[in-house]
Amino acid sequence: MKKILFIIGSLRKESFNKQLALETEKMIGSQAEVTYLNYSDVPLINQDIEFPEPEAVGRLRATVKEADGIWVFTPEYNFSYPGHVKNLFDWLSRPLVAGDYETPTVINGKKIALTGAGGKMATAKCREKLTELLTLLKADVMEQQTGIVLNLEAWTEGRMILTEEQIASLKAQAEAFLKFIG
Known about the structure:
Blueprint: E1 3-8, H1 16-28, E2 33-36, H2 55-66, E3 69-73, H3 83-93, E4 111-118, H4 124-136, E5 140-141, E6 146-149, H5 152-157, H6 164-180
Parallel strand pairs: 1-2, 1-3, 3-4, 4-5, 4-6
C-alpha cells in the first residue's frame, strides 16, 4: 500500500489546513496509508549543528524517505509560505553526509501535492513560491493544486465550511495524486 505523508503548514491546533487534511484523508480512505508529520521539535537550520544531525532532523528525514508521496497543506503568510515550512524543507535539502553534495537528498525526486486554505487569493502566492522552492530542490511537484477560499464562518467562528465545488476540487486532486504516486 502506498504511503502518503501529510505536512500541515500551520502549527495552530485547530488549523483550517489541518481540517482540510482530515477531509482529504477521508477521501483517500483505504487507497493509501496516510500519516501526519510532527515537526514541531525540528530546530532552526544551522550549519553549526548540522553534523551529527539532530535527532529530530534524523527522524524527519527517515519519515520523508519512507513516504511514496508528500502532501503539503499550508496557509499563506504575507504572500508566501510560513517560515517553519521553509525551515523544514531547508533541512531536507541539506546533504546527508558532511561535504557530500553529489548524493541526492531525501527530498530529491519526492512526489509532492500542494493544497492550501486561506483568504481571497486561496493561497495562490504561497503555492506558487512553494512550487518554485520544491522544484529547485528537485522534488516532483504535481501540477494540479487546490486553493480554498475560506468562508466567513471560518474567520468569525472557526468553522470551515467547504462548498460542493471545493469538495469536488479536493476529491479530484486526491484521485490525481494517487495516480501520480503510482
